[in-house]
Each structure stands twice: as structure tokens, then as C-alpha cells.
Amino acid sequence: MSHKDTNDVVKQYNPADMTEMGKEQEGRSDHWEVRTQERAYAFLPELEIQEKNRYGQPIDLVDYTGQPAGRPMYINENPSVGSNPNRNKQHGFFFTADNCIGCHACEAACSEKNENPPHLAFRSVGYVEGGSYPDYKRMNISMACNHCDNPVCLKGCPTRAYTKHVEYGAVLQDPQTCFGCGYCTWVCPYNAPQLDPIKGQVSKCNMCVDRLEVGLKPACVSACVGNALDFGVVEQTPHNREQCKTDIPGFPTTDITHPNIRFQQTRTMPDEMTRTDSMPVKYHKDEKGNYKPMVDQKVGKAKSWNFGKLNSRENPLVLFTLFAQAAFGLFATIFLGALLGVEPLQAFVASDMWVATGALTAGMTGFALLMSVTHLGKPLRFYRGFNNLRYSPMSREGFGLAMFAAGAGLNMLLSLPTNQTFIELTGLNLPDLTSAATGAGLFAVVAGIGGLFYMFKCYRIKARPFWNHWQTGTSFAGNALSIGALFAGVVVISTGLFVGVSQEMIAVATSFFSSVFVAGLILEAIGLIGHHKDMNSAEHEGAASHYVQQTTFGKTYVLRNVLLGLNIVASLGLIIATAVGYEIAFVLLIWLALGGLQFFTAAIGRALFYILVIPTTMPGAFFWKNKGFEQHARDIGLADNPATGVAPDLH
């Protein structure tokens, strides 16, 4: 058999020639090797290619992006450029649900090729089912990364570990750049990025670009027993297929990312399809024949406490958000109150204690940022969190809070020349920098507002409808006001009592802080009422989260709401008591009790916020994809055996 030029061979996709080429090039590093004994069905076919996909984006990515063609991808440090003639066109998966038998061969092939540990799977097979005997039907779904036109993982990642390549349109992720925050796993609607709790980093499907370079389909496609998976340039309908749809029962809306996957599903399915995992979500066919998610009341309607389940791997984020909001509220309440002419606050800002308050603010913000760092899989790489200020709200959140801490610290330093204790200790008579200190304080307030705004934007995630609501903003702002006023009141009022400030001045300060405190509580309550109303009437995963909130955590949810209401009533009473002249020591005692109760209430609410969210993931019921199984494995000790595929929560 005569050997041909590599480019000509790859263009023709002749399996026999490819095998010979693989033998000939064995041991050479400047060409791509083709594994021997590849079958004909493993090679990419040549079909007619359209100019644009159904979302209107050009399929030829060189023309679309203006990037040069023929760039090396440096796969496994190999500088060779593959000769696939469609190398710069958007590729995607094609899944025929009618053919999938649920054998998991695609999962096994993917994990074998990528050397994944048992607890990770870049591709997984789940299923939905419906009907009753004898007309019972199950539909399997094989899903991996969809290499979307609008990859939200790329825009959300603070470290810029993701890249959308002109070559094949592949969205590739670099685990070595990743510091394991897991934010990409939140924003992806398809559960494609996989966070490894052992290595502390994320990895995902890489489209098998090394195989594409020599005209081979991805490993999962080549291993598919039932010919359910196919692959090629997007919008190409494979041979012997009649549909090229973008939806299938259980598949999240394509509006979020414009995924590059197409479906065929011709069998008639029941009007209602349920998941076989533990998630309380099912899918109902609407009048147009499309399946929409709705609540599946799997746990009944009984209300429970489940305080133990409030403890989760998100505990550092509970502390991070609460302390960051409290630090901003502490500084902004005192600083802006003084600027607005509140007399006791003006006196406080001019006193020695204002410097200490600036240090307290910076310390609280530092503790909050430390908690966010401990949540990372690789905490020592925290500095990479500012790499994606262009897109990532997480990067902007961290930057805003860091600038807030810097502004508060600078305000403290610039206030030293007028600080009597500093002058007595050092003997220095520095120029009055009050105006500069005010400017630094205003900068801190603006930076803090920006940090809290992007903290809010971090959770406006379409893939997590329970969070994607304006109530998240009212909760964050309300906690900043209420808990910030608590800390500010403790500092200012206790200082006033210690130095012998008049009862009238202390009463004014107490009234001011109580007003800010109750304003935060009312703002939070308004958000909770709106959220409850919207989630009760919704038909998506957010409604399922709210269902769990009202059942599995029903008593805890009621307790939080009752405590919030009592705090509002008691705070209004405190304002009245201060105005009519009650003994200030008694008023301060009530104030401290209310503040402590509100911090406890806010901690419960924030823990529920993280625990309850149900993402728009694909249905999965195979071992670790089923959280019910995972919990069962932990309860009986099966999780201690790594062969089960349940990894311990090491981070």
C-alpha cells in the first residue's frame, strides 16, 4: 500500500490509510498519531456545511472572530497543526434519544481516555421516565459539555481558565490555571464542569480535540453501542436521521448559552416525565409539545427542622457574605451619618475611636475575604481571582471589596494627624488631612457599593432560578443595613457611655442606628414576600427549591420569618422607647439583644440560601449523580470506599 501525504490522507478520511499513517508516524513528535484499528464509523464524515447556525452565528469561526486559521493548539505540548478540513468550524454533538440503551459505554470511554477518577465523569447518562404499565417509557440522556456559542463558564470564571477556541469551537479549560472556586459549576446549566474535591480544581470535557485533529470523532461517540451519539460540524444532520432539534425532555432552555448539541427523539412520550434521581423536579408537556420543568412533590408536605443539614461546604461563603456586608454597613452608616450632620456621629468620627473603627472595618473585610479564600480548592492561588475583571462578577466582587478595605484603611491613616492620642504618642504635628480623609472615605463607600453590587450579580444566575431573583439583592442590602447598624451601634453607643457622653446624644445615636436597623429588616422582609409569591407561582427549579424550603426545612423557614417579624416590631418599639425617654441602659440592652437575634436570623437565612438552590442540571440517577444515593452512601459508610465513586468533601 502506498503512503500518502498526511494532509491528503486526513482530508479523505480513509480508515485503512489512517491506520498505515499511524504506523508510519509512530515515534515522531511533529505529527499527530492515529491509533491503529480505528473503525470506519469513528471517522468524521464529509457532509454539506451550512453558513450559519440556528442562532444566526456563522459556523466558520475564522470569519466570525477574525482570528487566523492554522494555529497550533499545543495539545499535550505537540505543536503540530491538524489537517482536518473543517478545523475552524463550530462542531457539536448529536444525540438520538431513541437509540440510547443506557449502557454507559460513552461514560466509560470518556473516563478511560481522560483518566478520570471514579468520582468524576465528564459525560454522564441520566434518564426520565413516565407512564404506567403496560405503557411505561424511559428516555435516556447522555450529556457532556456542549461547547456553547455563549459559554457562561468562560465569562464567570475569575481566573480566565476557559478559552473558546476558533479550532472546532471547543471551550477548553485549564485545570492548572483554575483555583477551584467552583463558580463555573454554578453558572453552567448542564453540569459540565466537574469540581474535584480531592485535587481542588475543575476539569471538563475537551471535545477530544486531539482526535479531531486527525479526523476522528470523540471517544464517547466512537464507543456508543447503539449509535445514539454522533458528532460533526454543527447543524449537520447525520446520515439516517430526520430531526435536528435543540430541546428534549429534561434539557434546560437553550436561551442561556446557545449550546452546540442537537437531538432526535421521535418516539411519543407521556405528557409527564419524572426524574429518577432525588431532585423534586418533573417535566410536563405544554400545548406546543415542549416539556417544561415543574415541582415534583417527592417528599410530601410535612414540615421538618433539619438544622443539621444547614451545615455544608458553603459555610465559608455564609461567613464571607455576612461579614463583608456587615463591614460595609458598619463603615458606611457611621461615615455617611456624620456627613449628613448626625451630631453624635460627627463627634465620634472626630474622636480617637474612629481610627479604631477603620481598623475594625478593614479587619472584618479581611476576615470575610479570608473565608472566601478558604472556600477555594487551591487557596494559595487566590490572587488569580482578579484575572477576569472584564467579564466575571466574582472578580469584580473581590476587587470592589478589596478597594473598600483599602479605602477604609486609608481613611483611618489620613485621620491620624487630627487624632489626639496619635499626636501625644508621636509628638508629630502633621498637616490637617481631613478633606483627604473624607475623600478616602467616599472612595471606600463607592467601592463597597460596587463590591456588594457584584456580589449580588454573582448570584443572578439563570441556571439557578432560586437565586436569580431581585430578592437576593434585598437580602444582601438588608443585611448590610441591619447587621452593619448593629456593629456600628455597639461601637458608637458603648464608646459614648464609656466617655460620659450626654444621655441626649446617646439617644440620638440610638434612634439613628435603630432606624437604619429596621430599614434593613423591612427591606429584607419585602424581598422575602416577593420571592415567596413568585416561587409559589413559578414552574421551574426555583419553585422546586422553594418547595424543599417549605417542607424539608419548613419549620426552620417559619422560624426565620417569625424572628424577622419580631425583630421588626421590637425595633420599632425601640425607636419609640428612645424617643419618649426610657432609661438608656435598658434601651441599649434591648438593642444588643435584637442585634444578636438578627445575626442569628441572618445566618439561618443565608445557610438556607446556599443549601436550597436546585440548578437546571440534566437528570442523573447513576450513583454519584443522584444526591439521594450519595447521602445514603455516606450514611451507611459506602462512601468510604473510593470505588463507589463518591468523593469525600475535602475542601
Structure description:
The N terminus is likely disordered. The chain contains 20 helices and twelve strands. It has 651 residues and is of the alpha+beta class.
Q: Give the fraction of residues assigned to helices.
A: 40-55%
Shape: elongated
User: Quick one: biggest sheet?
Assistant: 5 strands, antiparallel
The count of helical stretches stands at 20
In round numbers, the mean pLDDT is 87
Find the structural class using helix and strand composition. Answer: alpha+beta
Number of strands: 12
Low-confidence stretches: 1-30
**Backbone CA Rg:** 29 Å
Summarize, please.
This protein has 651 residues and is an alpha+beta fold.
Keywords:
about 650 residues; five-stranded antiparallel β-sheet; three-stranded mixed β-sheet; about 10% strand; elongated
